[in-house]
Amino acid sequence: MLKPIGPFSMSASASLHCIPPQLAREIWPMVRDRLYAAARRTDLSHSIDIARDVLHGDGVLWLACEGQEIKAAAVTLLTRTDRHLVCLITALGGDDMESWLPLLPQIEDWARAEGAARVRVMGRPGWARVLKNYDVSNVVLERAL
């Protein structure tokens, strides 16, 4: 059963698909623009790094689909800190959030099965309001020069 994530219903109208690395190059052109837009909005990573992670097999590409329509795409990357294996969601972009946000626990389950102790979302401050069962653990301080 899906855990409540925020102010949305618990049932997703979309289905989640983990794209095998050998298919990532074929799928990438269909989702690249929405993932690049997410990266540009936050300026927390470079779109080229996200593409490299997916196309070289280091990152995992996820699709939320309703039938044949792609509603959202995400990229995850497993990374080791000094204390934990962490699943980092490096990019997430899509339309109709209510249809796919309830799928996030499936990515969490995958990360747990891979040995991750944490899932981290780096994004705009609004994610803290939407992802009610996530904690704000760090802050990015920035000064324009």
Describe the structure in brief.
The protein contains five helices and five strands, in the order βααβββααβα. It is of the alpha+beta class and 145 residues long. It has a five-stranded mixed beta sheet with strand order 1-2-3-4-5, sandwiched between helices.
Architecture overview:
With 145 residues, the chain is an alpha+beta fold. 34% of the residues lie in helices and 27% in strands. It has five helices and five strands; from the N terminus they run βααβββααβα. It has helices at 21-42, 47-55, 97-100, 104-113, 126-130, and strands at 15-19, 59-66, 69-80, 85-94, 118-121. Strands 1-2-3-4-5 form a five-stranded mixed β-sheet, sandwiched between helices. A hairpin with a 2-residue loop joins strand 2 and strand 3 (69-80).
